[in-house]
Amino acid sequence: MVKRPVAGKVLPSPGKTVTETRRILRKLGAQHPNADTELNFTTPYELLVATILSAQCTDERVNQVTPALFRRYPDARALARASTDELEPQIQSTGFFRAKSRSLTGMAAAVVEEHGGEVPKTMEELVTLPGVGRKTANVVLGHALGIPGLPVDRHVLRVANRIGIARSEDPEVVEQQLGAAMPPAEWTKTSDTLILHGRRICKPKPLCDRCAVRAECDYYRALGPKIQKTAKPQLPRRAPQSRGDSGSVADERRAPQARRHSREGGAPRKRK
Ligand code: SF4
Fold first, then answer.
1. Which pTM value belongs to this model?
2. 213 CB within 6 A, ligand 1
3. Residue 153 catalytic?
4. In this predicted model, what pLDDT tens digit does every residue of 166-187 receive, in sequence order?
5. Could you say which of 16, 59, 100, 153 is catalytic?
6. Which of 216, 219, 251 to mutate to test the pocket of ligand 1 (most atoms within 8 A of CB)?
7. How many domains is the chain built from?
8. Residue 113 sits in which domain range?
9. What is the DSSP letter of 130?
10. Interatomic CA distance for residues 155 and 267, integer angstroms
11. Which CATH number do you get for residue 121?
């Protein structure tokens, strides 16, 4: 994937240099050596379907649904023949099943009619498919097509901004900032690593005492003085409070899509 300018947007400089960013990602990579997508797939088509289903749903739940789905609809041509009424009960447990069934049938029809049944291999073509945004396209490019892609989800957004290796609430801007700092061959791994760090350590309430990059994290540096300021001086013998575990600093803002949508189905929660 070639670095693409963001039309009409000014790219703010990230707080870290390229050298610092790469060093931080090396440390996080060592902390999460097996970072990879947790969606099960064997073809680009399957990953595209699984990624569409993973919106507001756990990978684990998607992996429970997709084996039967892929047996019944092994390729885009088979899926394009399905109706949304037929598809909905099969994907209901992933949530938002009506919108997702429309995306899946629309995506499959477009792949068949405009790309001969094969998942296209460029960002520009992928994002024209129904239900496919930039994040989904980057997942498919990076994990199924061997083309550098840097998916930015809410975990990447939160973690990168906290550390200071990116500065923006716009996923596309963060993608560009991280993409400019990291070699294309490491884009997908960068995303996988930040996602896993966000799921395991740098949660909305972060576990900073377990973090490999605490010493270089802007959020942690800012949090320290705040904790010291609120400490009670009359209790000097009290064990020092863990700065990173404090909930006194505002947590992440919710992802825009999470604010916009309400669930259609009764399936439990939604994180990815
Ligand atoms: S030090 Fe804390 S806030 Fe910073 S990246 Fe690590 S877990 Fe996240």
1. 0.80
2. yes
3. yes
4. 999 999 999 999 999 999 999 9
5. 153
6. 219
7. 1
8. 44-144
9. T
10. 22
11. 1.10.340.30
